[in-house]
């Protein structure tokens, strides 16, 4: 199979025009740069098959915010797919993206499956309307179990918003995914390669869970402050915005996932290390 590559954006927190998130962050300017930079990398790392955006698309879930988000994401040169986070509203997502059929399912939750060559991407909804923490409803876990049971040993990536493990940042861990045991049971029983990707913490963090590897993506603009003190404040820092590139490749004889941190440029270069040898 050819390598499958997916860019993961997360926690864009888009607000209305002439507004700043938390009165500090021009989140739209940062996302616009991320889109431009991602497009510029397609030839260098490509082909890239899709972009998945793992929640907190907007800051308040308002229609005008989704409309602004759409104006930027529509510039991507590959298809993109959305998931809600705790800052989002499913009804307004569906209103602004009516042509994204995967958002228009029959249940309240937004759960859908994508086949990308020999990889299956399963996107599940961990958002709880009106709450900051995450949960997986019985509807969602039953859907996930049904999907997994039909996949045999096919490679699987499962995307959602709230991480299923502690990050060490106390105020974020209090609003992580609650009781991931059923998720771990379902995914842990899958015989093929599998990986979980999520967001919410605005930092690049990886963990080995009972169901295999899980990766938290950074935010496209601001980062939750790196503070592991028990009484650490709920705060953020203006670290560089970034996104992830996930790849699945079996050409070496070992079928597995890799995840790469991509700070948003542009940056000077590339410079040849030894130009006289070229």
Outline of this structure?
With 278 residues, this protein is α/β, with parallel strands linked by helices. The strands form 3 sheets. Strands 4-5-6-7-9-8 form a 6-stranded mixed β-sheet, covered by helices on one side.
Describe the structure.
The protein is of the alpha/beta class. It is built from 6 helices and 13 strands. The strands form 3 sheets. The protein has a 6-stranded mixed beta sheet, covered by helices on one side. Strands 3-2-1-12-13 form a 5-stranded mixed beta sheet, with no helix packed on it. Strands 10-11 form a two-stranded antiparallel sheet. Helix 2 (63-73) crosses helix 3 (90-96). The chain starts with a strand and ends in a 15-residue tail after the last strand.
């Amino acid at each position: 199979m050819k390598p499958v590559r997916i860019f993961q954006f997360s926690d864009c927190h888009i607000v209305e025009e002439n507004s700043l998130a938390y009165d500090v962050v021009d989140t739209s300017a940062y996302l616009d740069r991320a889109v431009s930079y991602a497009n510029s990398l397609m030839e260098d790392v490509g082909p890239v098959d899709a972009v998945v955006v793992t929640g907190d698309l907007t800051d308040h879930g308002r229609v005008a915010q989704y409309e602004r988000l759409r104006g930027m994401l529509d510039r991507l040169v590959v298809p993109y797919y959305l998931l809600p986070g705790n800052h989002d509203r499913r009804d307004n997502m569906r209103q602004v993206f009516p042509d994204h059929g995967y958002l228009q399912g029959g249940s309240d939750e937004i759960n859908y499956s994508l086949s990308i060559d020999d990889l299956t991407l399963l996107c599940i909804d961990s958002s709880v309307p009106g709450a900051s923490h995450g949960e997986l409803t019985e509807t969602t876990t039953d859907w996930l179990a049904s999907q997994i049971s039909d996949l045999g040993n096919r490679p699987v990536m499962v995307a959602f918003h709230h991480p299923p493990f502690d990050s060490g940042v106390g105020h974020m861990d209090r609003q992580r995914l609650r009781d991931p045991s059923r998720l771990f049971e379902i995914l842990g029983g899958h015989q093929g390669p599998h990986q979980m990707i999520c967001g919410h913490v605005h930092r690049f963090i990886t963990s080995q869970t009972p169901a295999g590897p899980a990766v938290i993506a950074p935010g496209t603009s601001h980062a939750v402050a790196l503070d592991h003190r028990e009484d650490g404040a709920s705060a953020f820092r203006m670290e560089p915005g970034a996104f992830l590139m996930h790849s699945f490749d079996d050409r070496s004889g070992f079928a597995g996932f890799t995840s790469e941190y991509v700070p948003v440029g542009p940056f000077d270069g590339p410079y040849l290390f030894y130009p006289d040898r070229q």
